[in-house]
Amino acid sequence: MGKAKPVVVLAFLSVVLASSAIVAGQEAEWPCWRGPNRDGKSPDTNLLKRWPQGGPELLWQVNGLGGGFSTVAVTGGAVYITGDVGDKLILFAFDMNGKPKWKVPVDKAWTTSHAGSRSTPTIDSGRLYLLSGNGVLVCMDPKSGELNWSKNMRDFGGRSGGWGYAESVLIYNDLAIVKPGGESCIVALNKASGEIVWKSTGFNAGPEYSSCYPFDYANTSVITTGTRSGIVGISAKTGEFLWLNNWSARNTANCPDPQYADGYVFWANGYGKGGICLKLTAPDGKVAAEEAWTTKGMDCHHGGYIIHEGYIYGNNGGGWSCLELKSGKVMWKEKAVGKGSLCFADGMLYLFGESGGKAALATCSAEGMEVRGNVTVEGSGPSWAHPVVIGGRLYLRYADNLYCFSVNAGQI
Asked: Residues 344, 120, 168, CA angle at the centre, nearest 5°?
């Protein structure tokens, strides 16, 4: 029997690769804000290292999401996102081809300063969790949008900052963890029933706008987050107070989440504040934090940062910078798409500008940033939704539009 012709082999491989990309798009998980580990880093591999002229292939586009800054959650063969439509906060579910599955109203819309939806849905163990800008926390069925239970942050003595609640719910083991603010600043609920399991004690702080971030250090599971009083660390299992650093206390707004790596916690904010790095210790087995360094080299309003191989990459004012984690040394500063947000996947940075719908693919190296491709999407006003890369796809939300691009290397 003769050998198959090369063109047939190539065609076969093309079909296999395309099919693999579709399967990946359906099965890969980005179930919550900033991804599976809440660090802005995707598990994807085999992605494009350079985009074609005009940007990657657009798979589909959805319009009519309403106003908002919510990022997508992608899990269980569905894409979840929120938007304020009229006077309602609407939760949308789409299939992997961008076709509507269902939509339900969750709460009143946030209509005061910077109107629009805020929090990203969290999906875990057959349940979906969402916190509205007004402080209504819901647990729903992700297959239908049917309500399981709801709470209000006021029930815990909480009160939001002037721009509403913006955090995304953290699921830690069997706990749903939120930050109402006040004397019980952080509260853990049974994720199935909504009943209170613990409340934090030992400090009183407004919630501000960041989400809770979990990590393990010295055999202790820790939750850290930004508050009106500064950056705090507590026990994830009990809510026990561990440490509070008042750097950035009473800043105009504290929006980004802290991040942990290699025994250090880094937190940066905007409005000219910059960043702080805390070195952790565990005297007598209790986790403590002391200032290692501060910097003006990462003035980060909302767009966040990632930590990769000992370096921090993130938004810095009207552009981007790279800092050495252990010292704070500024490795480089670049403009790229201007002020914006980012995520990391397969050794590359995905940048999304705050203005004009500009997105870019860039290298992630302490030696410098090289932009390897650009694409522009339509929208208006500021874009504060972060880019998401999962299942070989790039998701960009700008105003009431959601775009899904193929960035899988097997498809080009």
From this structure: 95
Dihedral through CA 136, CA 160, CA 122, CA 126, nearest 10?
A: -30
Q: Could you give the strand order of the β-sheet that contains 100-108, starting from the edge strand earlier in sequence? A: 73-75, 78-85, 88-95, 100-108
* pTM of the entire predicted model: 0.93
Name the β-bridge partners of 273.
none
Q: Give yes or no for a contact between 359 and 349, defined as CB atoms under 8 angstroms apart.
A: no
DSSP letters for 2-16? PPPPHHHHHHHHHHH
Contact 270, 300 (CB under 8 A): yes
Residues 6+ apart with CB under 8 A from 8: none
Residue the block writes with tokens 């609920």? 189
Could you read off the pLDDT of 260-294 as tens digits, one per residue? 999 999 999 999 999 999 999 998 899 999 999 99
* Distance (Å, whole) CA 92 – CA 84: 11
Can you list the positions of beta strands (E) in 76-118?
78-85, 88-95, 100-108
Pairing of strands 175-178, 241-245: unpaired
Question: In 3D, which of 97, 104, 96 has the Cα closest to residue 132?
Answer: 104
DSSP letters, 159-220, are: ---TT-----PEEETTEEEE---BTT-SEEEETTT--EEEE--S--B---S---EEEEETTE
- pLDDT tens digits along 367-397: 999 999 999 999 999 999 999 999 999 999 9
Set out the domains of the chain in order of their start, with CATH numbers: 71-117+119-165+168-206 (2.40.128.630)
At residue 63, φ and ψ (nearest 5 deg) are -120, 165
What's the pLDDT at 28? 83
Name residue 112's amino acid: T
| 316: its two tokens | 């810095």
One-letter identity of residue 181: G
- The counts of H helices and E strands in the chain are 1, 32
Distance CA 350, CA 380 (A): 20
Q: What order of strands is seen across the sheet that includes strand 319-324?
A: 305-308, 311-316, 319-324, 330-334
